[in-house]
TrEMBL record:
Key word Protein biosynthesis present: yes
Subcellular location: Cytoplasm
UniProt-listed GO biological process terms: peptide biosynthetic process
Cellular-component GO terms for this entry: cytosol
Pfam family, one: Elong-fact-P_C
Pathway the protein acts in: Protein biosynthesis; polypeptide chain elongation
The keyword Phosphoprotein belongs to this UniProt entry's keyword annotation: no
Recorded name of the encoding gene: efp
GO molecular function: translation elongation factor activity
Domain Translation elongation factor P/YeiP central stretches: 67-122
InterPro entries to which the protein is assigned, alphabetical: Elong-fact-P_C, NA-bd_OB-fold, Rib_uL2_dom2, Transl_elong_fac_P/YeiP, Transl_elong_KOW-like, Transl_elong_P/YeiP_cen, Transl_elongation_fac_P, Translation_prot_SH3-like_sf
Organism: Aestuariirhabdus litorea
Family (UniProt): Belongs to the elongation factor P family.
Name listed for the protein in its UniProt record: Elongation factor P
Keywords assigned by UniProt, alphabetized: Cytoplasm, Elongation factor, Protein biosynthesis
């Protein structure tokens, strides 16, 4: 058991029998009141988020989740299948992959990480950056070169995001999977 003050962002705590990812902590000590820790939490099973306040010495049970490297294999209907290097398959529903679903495309070779809780796969994390090809974007606007000019683009799986104005159809771009934002132009994967 750890006190609320000892828990940090990125830790996972078992609350009411469910794993909650601590996304943000804010320790506050004011005047005569006892110190408190405000936490922003995300339920790893349901995906719901909440904010709560603990006394600094409230006890929380930390959870260490098992992680295994996997690659995307295929999808069928609402089911996505990932495979580890020993050819074990892990199936997840689209709802479990809500955060990473916009970046999953057929034939992707990115090494992902499957996350387990009590022996069951609950989510998949993508690498921090991935490289994807632009399937469609408008031509650049002439003369509009002041500042950081962005324009909409569509990836092969239909995901839309803003890219730099100089990007064209067929260009490969680097995307930050944490924010879903364009980072830079990239070379095509070998």
């Amino acid at each position: 058991m750890k006190t609320a003050q000892e828990m940090k962002s990125g830790n996972v705590a078992l609350i009411d029998g469910q794993p909650w990812l601590i996304q943000k902590t804010d320790y506050t000590k004011s005047g005569r009141n006892s110190a408190i820790v405000k936490m922003k939490l995300k339920n790893l099973l349901s995906g719901s988020s909440t904010e709560t306040v603990y006394k600094f010495d409230d006890k929380l049970e930390p959870v260490i989740l098992d992680r295994i490297e996997v690659t995307y294999s295929y999808s069928s209907d609402n089911l996505y299948v990932f495979m580890d290097e020993e050819f074990n398959q892990y199936e997840l529903n689209a709802e479990d992959l809500e955060a990473v679903l916009p970046f999953i495309v057929d034939g992707m070779t990115d090494i992902c990480t499957s996350v387990f809780f009590e022996g069951k796969v609950i989510s998949v994390d993508l690498p921090t950056t991935i490289v994807r090809e632009i399937a469609y974007t408008e031509d650049s606007a002439r003369g509009d070169t002041s500042g950081k000019v962005m324009k909409p683009a569509k990836m092969s799986n239909g995901t839309e995001l803003k890219v730099a104005d100089f990007c064209e159809i067929g260009d490969w771009i680097e995307i930050d999977t944490r924010t879903g934002e364009y980072r830079s132009r990239a070379k095509a994967p070998a």
